[in-house]
Fold:
Amino acid sequence: MLPIIALIGRPNVGKSSLFNRLVRQNKSITHDLPGVTRDRVYGEMYEGDQRAAVIDTGGMLPDAAEASAGMDRFVFEQAAEALFEADVVLFVVDGREGLTGLDQAVSEKVRASGKPVLLVVNKVDGPELEAKATADFHGLGFEIAPVSAAHGYGLADLRLRAVELAAPFLKPEPVYGPEQGLKLCMLGRPNAGKSSLVNALLGQARQIVSDIAGTTRDSVDVGFERDGRRYIFVDTAGVRRRAVITDHLEKLSVFRALTSSKRADVTILVLDAVEGLSHQDKRLIAYLAEQRTPFMVAVNKVDLVPKEHMDALRQGYAEALRICSHVPVLYISALTGEGTRKILSLAEEIRRECIIRIGTGALNRAMAEATTKHQPPVIKRRRAKFYYLTQADEDPPMFVFFVNDAELVTPAYGKYLENQLRKLLNIRKAPLATVFRSSHEKKEPERPLTNRAPRLGRSRRDMDGGVKGGRTTINPGKVSTSGKATASGKASAGSKTAAARKKG
Structure:
């Protein structure tokens, strides 16, 4: 296992900016607003041939530990869990503001953990500012590393020192490797229960759960192993309608959520059974279907729906999913655990269908059976003729039909072929695309010449009369006013003799 490095500190000292620099990608949302990061965000740092896992945490407010409720307490608990999990701690402070009372309170928590600590003084924009920026922090007794996450100053030395401190905690890698595993993205409107579902599947309070809509802001990766298989959950921010989003931070969160759904192996669209199917839910279904995203629908909070209303609820979701009838629907409760055991096995099944490869022989037999059972319609006295079928190198599967004219295949017949392929090839739950290509390009009809030049030359009889010894003698200099050339020599004499004989 990789050693774990946790970034700990009070709010708005630049932990997320430093985290993005260490993992060399914009994985954690950065903003001037304090308290943007709430859940733990995981990444991986490379330095030469050494690697380490890095955790970004929310701003730690030690006074929030005694609070009975509130977001600050949830964030503190997440940071405390990261501190407990870490092998090395990067204690991040603000060099511009100097040492504050919150920094001293956090330093006590960090010191009590007993972990190796490197005090990272951020926002030091150059070597000439080091002495002034770090002066207040020497009294804490930690090794100091002045850096600037915004401008890159001191980051090379920080990476080297961080992996050096983490090297003794390196453990043998598991067989599957750190980057492998089925990636599942949680997508849905705010407060639909995405984080609760992640916690229910993990069996621990890994994500912050609150009745406050918009609790999750980052797209948070959560890895775990079950029955020898590795899974990675990507918990995303709630997606609201674009018209009601005015905050730039929320726009960035929604963008991250939709991007995560494209990169995941399978997306779990979490819907709220109590609020019913909203217009935004339908828009998300249409978006996933248009993007050919492998997904399932998890209707959450069914424990709060009366049993006599369940039939109407199921009918409503079946109607909304007519545009992608292959998508499976689960009715679950993250609170009680009802129906949640089927999620992982169903995700595995969808993934297997997405990576399926079918031989050319089986494809063409399926095509022949489908087109024989129901022939294509006649369009303008012509019928589409299917030659052969191949599978494109795409994930999820895409099948390419080669026909005499692709314009002769109607959308209704294309849908029929898609349904037949699902049935004959046993692809029930994954997205499936059919493409029709003309095997030969259409030849444009020849256009008649309207302005043809006058014909120059002799008639065939004159040409035949002028043949002697296999040659035809033509005087190019003599051209009649009618546009016909006259022959010279014996050819002209022969013509006159023939005319005299006819007259006599």
About this structure: The domain at 4-169 is CATH 3.40.50.300 (Rossmann fold). The two ends are 119 Å apart (CA to CA).
